[in-house]
Write a structure and sequence with these properties.
The protein is about 10% helix and about 35% strand. The chain has about 350 residues and is mainly β. The protein folds into two domains: about 5-225, Oxidoreductase, molybdopterin-binding domain (Sulfite Oxidase, Chain A, domain 2), CATH 3.90.420; about 235-350, Sandwich (Immunoglobulin-like), CATH 2.60.40.650. The strands form five sheets. Strands 14-15-22-21-17-18 form a six-stranded mixed beta sheet, with no helix packed on it. It has a five-stranded mixed beta sheet with strand order 2-1-10-5-6. Strands 3, 4, 7, 8 and 9 form a five-stranded antiparallel beta sheet that branches. Bound molecules: the ligand Nc1nc2c(c(=O)[nH]1)N[C@H]1C(S)=C(S)[C@@H](COP(=O)(O)O)O[C@H]1N2 and molybdenum atom (MO).
Length: about 350
């Protein structure tokens, strides 16, 4: 793997991942939730802020935080994963935010239902997509823009998407989208537009940068590709034993080693998790924990009994009820998206 650039390091220090030991929490404590911010965290004055809901609607709306607070409350536990999670493990490494495995977390979101709000605004017959615009501004590929993403009207009306003003029981913190963000459970991170300024219903497909150029799975520069939507299945393991400070190489004591982790899929419920201690040659079944809801990751456990002292490579992989399973090797792609190849944790078993 070639050396990391100063630009990648600059991104990596702004946008932190979730330390994998935080897989122990059902709901990730806010400060441990991974973070991805393309530009700057915008300054927002809650007193003068309002959300505009416009476009192809019979009843356009303008809503303050107080207006939103008067509407029926919905709450959702959702696992969110950056579409670029796993990017830095591709070779050659696509140069962007260099995630290894840690760009995933789970939060309890509270707010109003997107479907209910759109129903109130009454979409016209020609309504096709819903464009969500954030307040944050920046430049990408020489194009000045605000962060914007769209959802097909059917997904906005039919799913469980939320306009969230609370995260884990407190108002959204600045870095996670204060005062309001979109949460579309099951979809990759970029869908969940932070710092919402407006929602616009359109009669055509949205062609904005973050939709038409970025976040597409493209095999090469000439490939038009397909848009990233739902999260592919993935299981992660809480690294067992203790790490060496600099290499993070792990040591575990000989005996029964309890392994735990979490698994999720945006396509269908997790059907099972398998464990390997030989780098993915042979697999055994892990036990799934309590179902914490369709959109939250599922815990799993497994007691590992190493046969002897020595070196092992621990792996875990998830499959879902739609038959999707994690590959052992990743498919390289231009943006470095959706690399759900199995996690590998080298460990040394000692006396
Ligand atoms: N307005 C805005 N929304 C955004 C982003 C952004 O840069 N600006 N980043 C997106 C991406 S790529 C991800 S992975 C998630 C990360 O959400 P988090 O930082 O709350 O974990 O937010 C998404 N929403
Ligand atoms: Mo992301």
């Amino acid at each position: 793997m070639t050396g990391i650039s100063l630009e990648e390091l600059q991104l990596a220090t702004r946008n932190h991942g979730m330390p994998l030991e935080a897989l122990r929490y059902d709901v990730t404590p806010v400060g441990l939730h991974y973070l991805l911010i393309h530009y700057d965290i915008p300054a927002v004055d809650a007193g003068s802020w309002a959300l505009t809901v416009g476009g192809r609607l019979a009843n356009p709306l303008r809503l303050t935080l107080a207006d939103l607070g008067e509407r029926p409350v919905v709450e959702l536990k959702a696992t969110m994963e950056c579409a670029g999670n796993g990017r830095a493990r591709l070779d050659p490494r696509p140069v962007s935010q260099p995630w290894l495995n840690e760009a995933v977390s789970t939060a309890r979101w509270r707010g109003v239902s997107v479907a209910a709000l759109l129903a109130e605004a009454s979409p016209l017959d020609d309504a096709a997509e819903v464009v969500f615009t954030g307040l944050d501004r920046g430049v990408e590929k020489e194009l000045e823009q605000q962060f914007q993403r769209s959802l097909p009207l059917g997904d906005a009306l039919g799913g469980e998407a939320v306009l969230a003003y609370e995260m884990n029981g407190a108002p959204l913190p600045p870095q996670h989208g204060f005062p309001l963000r979109l949460v579309v459970p099951g979809w990759y991170g970029m869908t969940n537009v932070k710092w919402l300024e407006s929602i616009e219903v359109t009669d055509r497909a949205f062609e904005g940068f973050q939709q038409a150029s970025a976040y597409r799975f493209r095999l090469d520069e000439d490939d038009e590709g397909r848009p990233l939507t739902r999260m592919a299945p993935r299981a992660l393991m809480l690294p067992p034993g203790i790490p060496e400070f600099f290499t993070r190489a792990r040591t575990v004591r000989f005996g029964d080693v309890p392994l735990t982790g979490r698994a999720w899929s945006g396509h269908a419920p997790v059907a099972g998790v398998e464990i390997s201690d030989d780098g993915g040659e042979t697999w055994g079944e892990a036990e799934l924990g309590t179902d914490e809801g369709r959109w939250a990751w599922r815990s799993w456990t497994h007691v590992w009994r190493p046969a002897a002292l020595g070196e092992y490579v621990l792996c875990c992989r998830a499959h879902d009820e739609a038959g999707n399973v994690q590959p052992v090797a990743a498919t390289w792609n231009v943006g470095g998206y959706s690399n759900n190849s199995v996690q590998q944790i080298p460990v040394t078993v000692t006396e």
